[in-house]
Write a structure and sequence with these properties.
632 residues, alpha/beta, Serine Threonine Protein Phosphatase 5, Tetratricopeptide repeat, 4 domains, five-stranded mixed sheet, three-stranded mixed sheet, 22 helices
């Protein structure tokens, strides 16, 4: 494990102590880290200057007289050096991209802008040029200067319609004061410098990154620098959040600021675990995403929350620490800093109850147009993945209707699979629990129920995921990834590190398992395949391009590792003489069979394997699934 969460946490504790007790020392540290990033482009400019001076000093004397070749050499050399220097220099003053999207104007929502104007009294230095609308339950601000980090500063605000739907006027006033405080105290300047340096260095390094996900060489060095710089800035950015909370409390009061944080956190949890889960489950029946998702979200947030969801959220927040993967402190830490930490301990508090007059009313007649815009933006971004997933559901339906050589348990699962994965959450949970009462060792059902419960932060979900992995190791990466996300978001570093170790162990064992899947020995146990008629038809169609293949036998090989599912085995009978030139070679034919499985499998020539293996293969697959006679 390259960098454990616990080690990262210990570094953050030291940095937070330094930022609190020795702010000047911490400021010098951050300046040094920032200067290290700018040292690269500045060093290139200095090197270009030195190279240009050396070029004019040493090159002209090499020519006895000024002829065409000398002039051309000096011209090209000068142009190359100046071109590099100008390109690097201009990136320092590159104008950042201006935010785009639907804005809330004074003419459309005068009541909302009146509230913003009220906050100019406690925050006289703040100037908001535009307010952009978003669909999330959030709010934010940013500043941009005309030339990178130089020139006139322009402030922008982003307001989520979901946030307006779950806050009262006083709570919204506190939220906006929090964002104004970031601008007043120039907290956004740090983010601007970080974005400028990243854009500057990334533009220079990008040609060297052949694979941005797995960089190598100098690219890996820059990626490590960005990670290091991000870790160094976490303490100061968290401190900025506490300072903004304090100023917001000064404008309103501590309880109003605390209840605003409470309500936004709870409603964000509800929308992610309930509303969006239900929306994406509609993919089973609808070929296109819904049209008015922003309006539906507003109506959902106006409903009283499910008590069980509230209990799950409270349990999560009470057990959470500030996550190392986010510069925002945990809700528990922010409420404690405001002196309202007891809000999380009292499950009877009615803070999470939707307001009787949500602040979406401040938008007036513009609300309908803004919701239509947000819905269209969401639909345009999700429609491709939605169609692809809907096609996958249709394939599942066809597969469930086809006869297949599967046992009774699997046949029963296929009847309820779509309902369990895409039906209403409560109905799906009931269906899965009923199925597991009679089929407790079904890996897919345990995994589906575990995922459903983990989405709602129900601790019982982990037990089902762990058992699914025990039954079928193919679920390991997905199940472990879900648990890692939950632990990291809650700041549970020790548990997260344990999951990381399990992921590393699984990756190592998977490489060995994949190698075994491509081999077939006399000790392997073979069982009948479970290919559906449509699978066999597609396989036959693909083999029409391979005249070298005379017959194909298919079976499954039991894996020796516990939890490994059987893998396919293709026994190929090759023709000694091909009557006509084939479109694919024998090696390409074997690659075609492996691509059909979309994973590692064993492809063997029947005439070249021991007779014991041939007998096993014929015992479980007496008749070939493909024969040369089908080409006629």
């Amino acid at each position: 494990m390259a960098f454990s969460d616990e080690r990262f946490r210990s570094q953050l504790i030291k940095l937070e102590a330094e930022a609190r007790d020795h702010p000047r020392r911490h400021a010098v540290r951050l300046f040094g880290v920032l200067a290290l990033g700018y040292a690269v482009p500045l060093g290139i400019l200095v090197l270009c200057g030195i190279s240009l001076a050396a070029f004019f000093h040493y090159v002209p004397p090499l020519f006895s007289r000024w002829h065409g070749g000398a002039v051309f050499t000096i011209f090209v050399g000068t142009a190359v050096i100046l071109g590099v220097a100008v390109a690097v220099f201009l990136r320092f003053f590159k104008k950042p991209a201006t935010p785009t999207g639907k804005t809330i104007t004074r003419q459309d929502a005068p009541a909302f802008w009146e509230l913003l104007d009220e906050l100019k009294t406690p925050f006289p230095a703040v100037r908001i040029e535009r307010v952009f609308v978003e669909g999330e339950i959030t709010a934010g601000v940013m500043t941009q200067r005309r030339f990178g980090v130089f020139g006139k500063s322009t402030g922008y605000m982003f307001v989520g319609l979901g946030m307006l739907a779950c806050t009262s006027r006083e709570q919204l006033r506190s939220v906006l004061s929090h964002e104004f405080a970031h601008l007043q105290l120039r907290h956004t300047s740090l983010a601007a410098w970080m974005a400028h340096m990243f854009d500057l260095l990334h533009g220079m390094v990008k040609p060297l990154l052949q694979d941005e996900e797995k960089p190598s060489g100098i690219g890996r060095l820059f990626v490590r620098y960005f990670e290091y710089f991000g870790r160094q800035t976490v303490p100061i950015r968290r401190r900025h959040e506490f300072e903004a909370d304090r100023l917001a409390a000064d404008v309103t009061d501590e309880r109003t600021t605390a209840t605003a944080l409470y309500a936004i956190s709870l409603q964000a949890f509800r929308s992610n675990r309930v509303f969006w889960s239900d929306i994406f489950r509609q993919v089973a029946d609808a070929a296109l995403p819904p049209n008015h998702v922003a309006t539906e979200l507003r109506k959902f947030l106006a409903e009283s929350p499910d008590p069980q969801i509230v209990q799950n959220w409270l349990a999560m927040e009470q057990a959470s620490e500030s996550p190392i993967v986010d510069y925002h402190p945990s809700l528990k830490a922010r409420l404690a800093a405001l002196g309202c930490g007891k809000l999380l301990l009292d499950s009877t508090v009615d803070v999470g109850v939707p307001p009787t007059q949500p602040t979406t009313g401040l938008l007036g007649d513009a609300l309908e147009d803004l919701e239509a815009y947000v819905s269209a933006q969401w639909k345009g971004g999700i429609i491709g993945a939605w169609r692809e997933q809907h096609a996958g559901v249709e394939f599942q339906r066809k597969r469930a209707a086809e006869p297949a050589a599967i046992d009774a348990d699997e046949a029963q699962w296929r009847k309820i699979e779509l309902e369990a994965q895409y039906g209403p959450v409560e109905q799906a949970q009931t269906t899965l629990q009923g199925f597991l009462e009679t089929h407790p060792d079904h890996a897919q059902a345990n995994y589906t129920l575990g995922t459903l419960l983990m989405e709602r932060h129900d601790p019982a979900g982990q037990r089902y995921l762990d058992y699914a992995v025990e039954l079928d190791r193919s679920f390991s990466m997905s199940a472990l990834g879900q648990q890692l996300y939950v632990y990291q978001s809650m700041g549970r570093d020790r548990d997260a590190d344990a999951i990381k170790q399990r992921i590393e162990q699984f990756e190592k064992s998977s490489k060995q398992s994949d190698k075994l899947r491509t081999q077939l020995t006399v000790d392997d146990e073979l069982i009948p395949h479970d290919l559906t008629p449509s699978h066999i038809e597609r396989l036959n169609h693909a083999l029409m391009l391979t005249p070298q293949v005379e017959a194909l036998f298919v079976a499954k090989k039991k894996m020796r590792e516990a939890g490994d599912q059987p893998s396919l085995v293709f026994g190929v009978g090759y023709r000694r003489r091909t009557p006509r030139r084939g479109l694919l070679s024998m090696a390409q034919a074997e690659e075609l069979l492996r691509s059909f499985v979309n994973g590692p499998c064993a492809v063997v020539a029947i005439d070249r394997v021991p007779s014991s293996i041939k007998k096993k293969l014929h015992a479980v697959c007496p008749a070939p699934v493909f024969h040369v006679s089908k080409r006629r």
